[in-house]
């Protein structure tokens, strides 16, 4: 079902990356800039992520001896240093996720470039190196994003949903590796409910919510794909849910032939396979379109 599976290291059947977007309360300030500081209940829910869930998550990774991935807005890096220290001490990757979770599609090219650059500086100061990967806040990869990432020397992007395996985004500026996921791998649909964030869903039981991710894993294992979660510490890091995650990791490891890796390591492996000819990726040439496909103002003329 996958025509061009990546030759994963040591003959692994699939690659797996548990990625967390540690947005904390950045998204609350973005949604309600004038009243966010009065929304104490919502803030407590979101601060649970860096203050309670992140240490729990990192401890589990230590138990299983795996290094994984956190995408973090730079504002959160500045405001939650203890969580950042915990992540870095565990050997995990910190990726770029905007400054305060701003929407790239609401920014001009210059504005997007400014916040991209400012956040790179924060990450570099906190981690000692420039970020290798980026995930667009809200998945909102703009018409300028690929060029800006290439100009800044990023190795990969993790915002798009165009394949089951890594592929290449190519523009006039060059190319970048895409490590895709999709909404079926996101924990907001099964686990998030918040009036303050304008997202009200029926919350599923932890075992039911995690079943979706397990079935996604089984498919990727069968066909050689890439399994990438898009989770949030305040949601999946909750106690009952995280207990189910531990059981799922045990299941994945018992199944065997799974390469748990940081996203930068996956992207570097894919790049090496492309360069040595052992992997031929699908290429998406961007932009897909250079103008409106169906201009409303011209309709009916």
Overview of this protein structure:
This protein is α/β, with parallel strands linked by helices and 301 residues long. It has one domain (9-288): Glycoside hydrolase/deacetylase (TIM Barrel, Alpha-Beta Barrel). The protein is built from 11 helices and 13 strands. It is globular and about 55 Å long. The relative contact order is 0.19.
Strand order of the largest sheet: 5-6-8-7-13
Query: Structurally, how many domains make up the residues?
Result: 1
Number of strands: 13
Helix and strand string, N-terminal first?
Answer: EEHHEHHEHEHEEEHEEHEHHEHE
Poorly predicted segments: none
Q: Assign a percent range to the helix content.
A: 40-55%
What do the pLDDT scores average to? 96
Examine the secondary-structure arrangement and name the CATH architecture: Alpha-Beta Barrel
* Number of helical elements: 11
Briefly note the structural class of the backbone: alpha/beta
Q: What value does the Rg take, in angstroms?
A: 19 Å
Most strands sheet: 5 strands, mixed
Q: What's the CATH class label? A: Alpha Beta
Shape: globular
Determine the CATH topology: TIM Barrel
Distance from first to last alpha carbon = 44 Å
Give the amount of beta strand, in percent: 5-15%
Annotated CATH homologous superfamily: Glycoside hydrolase/deacetylase
């Amino acid at each position: 079902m996958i025509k061009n599976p990546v030759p994963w290291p040591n003959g692994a059947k699939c690659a797996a990356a548990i990625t967390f977007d540690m947005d904390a309360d950045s998204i609350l300030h973005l949604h309600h800039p004038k009243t966010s500081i009065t929304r104490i209940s919502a803030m407590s829910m979101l601060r649970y992520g860096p203050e309670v869930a992140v240490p729990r998550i990192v401890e589990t990774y230590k138990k299983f001896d795996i290094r994984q991935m956190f995408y973090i807005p730079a504002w959160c890096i500045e405001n939650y240093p203890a969580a950042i220290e915990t992540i870095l001490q565990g050997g995990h990757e910190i990726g770029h996720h905007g400054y305060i979770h701003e929407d790239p599609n609401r920014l001009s090219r210059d504005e997007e470039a400014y916040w991209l650059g400012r956040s790179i500086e924060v990450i570099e100061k906190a981690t000692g190196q420039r970020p290798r990967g980026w995930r667009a806040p809200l998945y909102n990869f703009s018409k300028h994003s690929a060029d800006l990432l290439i100009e800044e020397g990023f190795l990969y992007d993790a915002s798009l949903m165009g394949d089951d395996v890594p592929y290449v985004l190519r523009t006039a500026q060059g190319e970048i590796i895409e490590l895709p996921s999709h909404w079926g791998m996101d924990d907001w649909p099964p686990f998030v409910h918040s009036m303050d964030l304008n997202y009200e869903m029926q919350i599923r039981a932890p075992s039911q919510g995690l079943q979706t991710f397990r079935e996604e894993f089984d498919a990727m294992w069968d066909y050689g794909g890439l399994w990438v979660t898009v989770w949030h510490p305040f949601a999946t890091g909750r106690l009952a849910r995280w207990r189910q995650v531990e059981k799922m990791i045990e299941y994945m490891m018992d199944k065997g032939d799974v390469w748990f890796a940081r996203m930068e390591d996956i992207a570097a492996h894919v790049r090496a396979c492309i360069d040595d000819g052992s992997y031929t990726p699908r290429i998406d040439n961007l932009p897909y379109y250079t103008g409106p496909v169906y201009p409303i103002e011209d309709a009916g003329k």
